[in-house]
Amino acid sequence: MEQALLFPEAFPVQQPIREKNSVQYFPLLAKTVLNSCNSCRLPNAVTLNPYRGCEFGCNYCYARYTHEFMNLDWEDFENRIFVKTSAPRILMRTLDCDKLRGKHIAIGTATDPYQPAEARFMITRQLLEVFSQVKGLTISITTKSALFRRDLDLFVKIAENNRFRINLSLISLNARLLRVLEPKASSPESRLASLKMVSDAGIPTAVFIMPILPALTDGLKTLESVVRAAREHGASDIHARVLFLRDSAKRILYSWLERHEPRLAQRYKALYNKRAYTETQYQKRTLGVVESLKAKYGYSSRPEKDLLVESFSRIGEAQGTFEEPDLFEGPC
Ligand code: SF4
Question: Fewer beta carbons within 10 Å, N or C terminal of the chain?
Fold first, then answer.
């Protein structure tokens, strides 16, 4: 039986509005831009994704499955990018601040809002222009791109009248590893340089160590280097989560491991055998290391809960178990 399309507005695919190397960009006339998160754990969440698909093509990204819902291949996630060209206009027309007060608008939960497409199409910037004209909202942006510093002028305006935070996603400072693992994301140095610039301007920032990859980025030295660098570049908080693997992400990560880290391929298959997450004990131990590093480097032990995309660790601790994260939490 043919699978129902969850995003019928994106199909059939139109002519690309741009092609660059192997990447095609298509317009997506979205009907709504703010999507309520249905999770009972995150009742106040509203997500906003300016694009569908992500050219950064991280080899562990679990958001790839969102392309499968459109009857596209998981590889298309990084090659066929849908640009929500009408999103700024719709946001301007439909933004209801009274209804959104007390909610958290999370920009970039199933895509990176500052991926390469943003340099040309500027959908994220146009959305921020709308938010810069309102008051009293809670807004965060999560990204692996250094491009976010381009919009510092708008961050300042938004932060004057709203609760606002930039979440920089950074899993390691090892540029060689990241070059093959997150092939088109910005280098760690350039991400951190943008973080410093924005933090120095008084914008609240955090670093997301998401995901922590078993036997690749879970070592004390690796975690400590990120926690320390985040502090040195102005981040006021750190959030971490151990790798979560849906089936579509398993296929691509296992294939990547065979090519780049063959010694780990079988180990990962055993770790994630018939499940999407690692043993609870491993997660507790690893996230405990991050917590102790946060204490060592002077991060607050009382995070601003309504400004963060709730981390896997905290949800697990609260419930005494570790569960599959929601899409709201973001793949980064
Ligand atoms: S993990 Fe984030 S940056 Fe990487 S491909 Fe997925 S959405 Fe893009």
Answer: N
Closest ligand 1 atom to 145 CA: 3
Which atom of ligand 1 is least distant from the CA of 60?
1
Lowest mean pLDDT among 21-35, 156-170, 297-311, 314-328: 314-328
CA distance 246 to 324: 9
Fold assignment, 11-301: TIM Barrel (3.20.20)
DSSP H stretches of helix in the chain: 65-68, 76-79, 87-94, 97-100, 116-121, 123-131, 152-161, 175-181, 188-200, 220-232, 247-260, 262-271, 280-296, 312-319
Ligand 1: centre distance to CA 115 (Å): 9
Q: Would you call the peptide bond into 12 cis, given omega within 30 degrees of 0 as the criterion?
A: yes
Pocket of ligand 1 (CB under 6 A): 54, 56-58, 61, 63, 111-112, 144, 182, 185, 331-332
Q: Nearest residue CA, atom 4 of ligand 1?
A: 58
Q: Whose CA is nearest to atom 7 of ligand 1?
A: 111
Q: How confident is residue 203, by pLDDT bands cut at 50, 70 and 90?
A: very high
Percent of the chain with pLDDT over 70: 84
Atom of ligand 1 nearest to the CA of 185: 3
pTM here?
0.88
**Which protein residue's CA is at the shortest distance from atom 6 of ligand 1?**
61
> Residues 90-133: pLDDT tens digits?
999 999 999 999 999 999 999 999 999 999 999 999 999 999 99
